């Protein structure tokens, strides 16, 4: 029967069967947001419209907060590189944030532990220069 003559229910069932049968070994927690029900889909669908990751680990607001820290750190480093001969602060700042993308991706530590291991040491040394990574992170979390 041509696709144009199939009911919405038949097409949905075919898609569900195709997803189920082709996703063996690739299944992760994904919500297929285009329908009213939750379905497990393949990793390949993450780039498709209407599909979003449901991670039990790091929350979206925490990811946004870490991205805000990276943005603020980058702007701060750019400005410091133009106005300071002391490159140690830029070195320490980059050292404090260089694992942030991996933390977001892999979620090895809790955010509190990550802040303690990476952001806090920078703050203790350099906060008086005008940037607190922990403060940026917490303010970004609180604003969401």
What does this 3D model show about the protein?
- The protein is mainly alpha-helical and 144 residues long.
- The chain folds into 2 domains: 3-53, no CATH class; 60-142.
- Helix content is 57%, strand content 7%.
- Strands 1-3 form a two-stranded antiparallel sheet. The protein has a two-stranded antiparallel ribbon with strand order 2-4.
- Helix 2 runs antiparallel to helix 3 (88-97).
- It is elongated.
- Residues 19-55 have low confidence and may be disordered.
List its salient traits:
single chain; 144 residues; mainly alpha; 2 domains; two-stranded antiparallel ribbon; two-stranded antiparallel sheet; 57% helix
Average residue pLDDT: 75
Radius of gyration: 22 Å
- The count of domains is 2
Major sheet: order of its strands? 1-3
Between the first and last Cα atoms, what is the distance in angstroms?
50 Å
- Give helix and strand order, one letter per element, not per position: HEEEEHHHHH
- The number of helical segments is 6
Unreliable stretches, pLDDT < 50, 5 or more residues?
Answer: 19-55
| Class of secondary structure makeup | mainly alpha
Largest sheet: 2 strands, antiparallel
- Counted beta strands: 4
Helix content range of the residues, please?
55-70%
Shape: elongated
Strand fraction band? 5-15%
């Amino acid at each position: 029967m041509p696709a144009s003559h199939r009911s919405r229910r038949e097409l949905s069932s075919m898609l569900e069967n195709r997803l189920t049968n082709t996703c063996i070994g690739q299944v992760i927690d994904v919500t297929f947001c285009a329908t009213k029900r939750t379905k497990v889909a393949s990793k390949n669908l993450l780039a498709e419209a209407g599909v979003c990751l449901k991670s039990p680990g790091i929350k979206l607001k925490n990811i946004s907060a870490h991205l805000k820290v990276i943005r603020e750190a980058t702007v701060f480093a750019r400005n410091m590189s133009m106005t300071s001969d002391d490159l140690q602060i830029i070195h320490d700042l980059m050292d404090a944030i260089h694992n942030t993308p991996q933390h977001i991706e892999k979620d090895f530590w809790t955010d509190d532990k990550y802040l303690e291991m990476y952001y806090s040491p920078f703050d203790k040394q350099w906060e008086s220069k005008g940037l607190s990574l922990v403060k940026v992170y917490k303010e970004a979390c609180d604003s969401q």
